Model the fold of this input.
Amino acid sequence: MSYAFQANGLVKRFGKTTALAGVELAARPGTVLGVLGPNGAGKTTAVRILATLLRPDAGTAEVCGLDVVRDAAKVRELIGLTGQYASVDEDLTATENLVLIGRLLDMRKAEAQARAAELLERFELTDDAGRRVSTYSGGMRRRLDLAASMIGRPAVIYLDEPTTGLDPGRREEAWRLIRSMTDGGGAVLLTTQYLEEADALADEITVIDHGTVIASGTPAELKRIAGGQTISVRPRDPGRLAEVAVILHAVSGREVESRRDMVSVPVGGDGDGAFTEAVRRLDAAGIGVTELSLRLPSLDEVFFTLTGRHTEEVAA
Amino acid sequence: MSSDVILESGIGVRGAERPRRRYRLVRHSLLLAGRSLTKTRRSPGVLSDALFMPIIFLLLFVYLFGGAVSGSTHAYLQYVFPGVLVMTMLLAGMLATGLSINTDIKKGVFDRFRSLPIGRSAPLVGLVLGDVIRYVVAAVVLFATGYLMGFRVQTDVPSALAAAGLATALGFAMGWINVLIGVLIREEVVVQTVAFLGIFPLAFGTNMVVPTDTMPGWLQAWVKVNPVSDAVDAARGLLVGGPVAHPAAMTLLWSAGFLAVFAPLAVSAYRRRS
Ligand SMILES: Nc1ncnc2c1ncn2[C@@H]1O[C@H](COP(=O)(O)OP(=O)(O)OP(=O)(O)O)[C@@H](O)[C@H]1O
Ligand SMILES: [Mg+2]
Done:
């Protein structure tokens, strides 16, 4: 069984700070690994080691069986990197950025231009391709940054918090593009602070905190650990909160939580059935709602379940 | 062996599709120099120092010291012009390059370059080569201003070009000192300060502005070992006549020395920088 990339016991210290204290990561070709963690968890450090930009103090990492330290030059032939902070050149146009990378990858000029045009089309930037990147919106810049890591058809793509700072619509759009990145059989390592994002994109998720892995598994496994999804209902008439609570309790069989004008209840495992049932019963009882949602636990809630601490305390 | 693993995983691999082309380091450096030039073309404001520095130096030196040193500004212009040429070329490269490298490598785009299968030195060499445009601008402006003020090349055009080339060679070689500083130091302001402190004794501790025999002994000693003095002598010989061979050889030797020491140091510092 071969992994597209694999890290074992990665340790990295910066002075007194231990950024990584023995991290294991792996993904098979054609899959997305989500690395989930709060600020300062060590996500960027892990990505930089796997991208040959940093040497680990201990542990090993391989890309397609090649060691990232010993065979760094060959590894660079196989990877594409979209860093946490914009890694495109603001003073160049989108086309110039992509063609430059293509040519640095030893493509002929015509080949690089064709590949750039193809990716610009796919990332919906064709109309703005001749404009300087400094005039781009955050979403466009991010899309270009994603496209740039794909120029050489890499076997492994690293995306470090690719949707941070994007509004929800733009985030969905980026998700769609990221999902298509594994079409050619490449593997993607994606770091994020949102369980929702990891759930939407990743085949496997590794949760790290303070440079150590605190959980790993499929999104479904992780959601199970974290207590599944939550249904929240805000009735139009606050006077009917008690009735809503009764319905939600009946549907889920769990303790409900009332907070001001909203009632929430956790639902185990697959929440879809319970959600549909709740909607049906609310409707039958004639209760109008202003808000009705089925959502995953936040990273904070996952953290609290796994470590008994909130992420804010971690970051502090 | 590596390609087996890769093919086994069924991924289209660039290495396999694309046979390695030749002269990769040169090609990559030139591509990145092209990027630098495009950026300069887009915001030519960054060349303003290369544009104004020669004019200000010439005006300042000629009208400030001219009367005192040579008795007439016209005679002094003949004396000081070769020195200003050397100093301008030193400053043109050194100040800008260290700074642009410092600001550039802090951005994510250098991370991407470093993750590409290109020579480790290519991004640095590219930046330094891209700055060659500064030398050209500075030299053209300097000769034009000098001409308007009354300076005439006493030799011939090839000699004048050689003088400019020699000054550029030393500027380019010493520019790597600042590349090293730019890579090592994280704060932009500090980069500029260190660059200034390093450049001033070199650029001004010469026989450029006044003849050496007017100076105190310790300064004469420094001026004699300062490689910039050799470059000034060589430029003087090439522009207005005088001995050329020895100072020119010394300048080239020093340039090669600076390049051989500081370019590898800068590259290895850049490689180790996280
Ligand atoms: N170059 C460096 N020098 C010193 N400390 C560093 C360096 N890079 C990272 N660190 C420290 O290592 C720890 C992990 O940092 P890292 O950037 O990997 O976290 P992260 O998970 O990417 O966080 P974020 O979500 O904020 O991007 C932090 O405490 C950080 O301050
Ligand atoms: Mg980070």
Notes: The first strand of chain A starts at residue 5 and ends at 14.
